[in-house]
Amino acid sequence: MKKKIKPMTKKSFITYGLVLIAFVAVEILISTGNISSMLKGLLVPICVYSILAVSLNLTVGILGELSLGQAGFMCIGAYSSAIFSNMVKETITEPMIRFPLAILVGGIFAALFGIIIGIPVLRLRGDYLAIVTLAFGEIIKNVFAALYIGYDSAGLHISLKSQGDLGLAPDGKMIINGALGISGTPNDSTFEIAAVILFITLIIAYNFVNSRTGRAVMSIRDNRIAAESVGLNITKYKLMTFALTAFLAGVAGVLYSHNFYSLQASKFDYNLSILVLVFVVLGGIGNIRGSVIAAIILTMLPELLRSINNYRMLMYAIVLIVMMICTSNETIRSFFVRNIEKFKGLFKKNKAQSDVVKEGE
Predict the structure, then answer these.
(1) Can you give the pTM of this predicted structure?
(2) Which of 129, 226, 242, 308 is the most buried (most CB within 10 A)?
């Protein structure tokens, strides 16, 4: 007797398969030279936004809490890893050693801030939580925009006023130059590395959802009072989910910061948090695969529409509205589900007929 595969496990394997197929297809296009430089430049950002969308879906879809602090966690991961890489790039010259360490630094720092912010913030719910996490993201962005950091033989020098207040020695070097940000970060982020990290993120997300902790988190989402009545520690499970979300957002920030020569804090504003939330809502709240698909489509769409420059954002808005209507309308969704089921039934019927023919032979 064949052992049935659980629906959630089946979904995860389908997602892994789709990501692998997409990766192989892109690698073939790159090796044969059939991909434009514009699309090639979007490959790492697509992976970055996909990781952000998957991580936010753990908080919004699995935990059921609305958080708008994703840009803040990404900013922490990006800056902390860029500082680390700039300080060690002359001593650790091998990228395959330096970059994994930078990923750990960025992810851990973002997770620590997630825990520190989560302890007081997760007592709030709904709109209040969204407003506070949005404010956190803006505070982080403005702090890094006002920060001046340099180092010399005496160590690190930090100031919130100006570069002149650092008191650097003549041989000193600037790391963060206020609103100008960080320059000279090693370009260690590649599509292959970003794709591997996206794949690992999906494995972490699906395993978290299918784990005992994930089931506890979903029970808190569905009925907080009932979950508390059976002895679940609400704060503990919320904090675990929030810290994991922050860690993955920090890792996405590391990929982002090591993909560009310069990095400015202005890139991590509230618009980025809203954009990631749009990916989650469009892909389906709680649907991890849908988050990746939505992130890919909405990242590529503005660039694909660049040929109609005057109407590019208008077309982008129209497509976004149509997609939102299609994914939220029950009639349209049921239409697609019915046709997909018919296709599956036809496939099964053809397979059964071929099996009968083989048995007859």
Answers:
(1) 0.85
(2) 242
